[in-house]
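A quick aside before the break. I want you to see a complete sequence-to-structure record at least once, exactly as it would be stored in a machine-readable document. Don't worry about memorizing anything.
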Amino acid sequence: MAYTVEIKNDVAKAIARLAPKMQQRVAAALRELANEPRPAGSAKIKGRDHTWRIRLGVIRIVYEIHDNILSVTVVRLAHRREVYRHL
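That is the input. The structure line, written in tokens, reads:
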């Protein structure tokens, strides 16, 4: 079952600000989320019902999984020291 991956506008802007190699890594990770929303290395964020994260070096991708509608929504992408501040 393939999930649809939705990216919020502020996440798209954050991706555009990354270095080209990191943009490619993020794009590959987002494509993988469509096939497997809980890949190896992902972790559930405590205190949030459907929120997970993936590590890509110092970058974190925070996303919500909605299994009932087969949807993944990327809600935040930032450096590891900033990503959890306003969740």
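Two observations worth writing down. The chain has a mean pLDDT of 94. The two ends are 28 Å apart (CA to CA). We'll return to this after the break.
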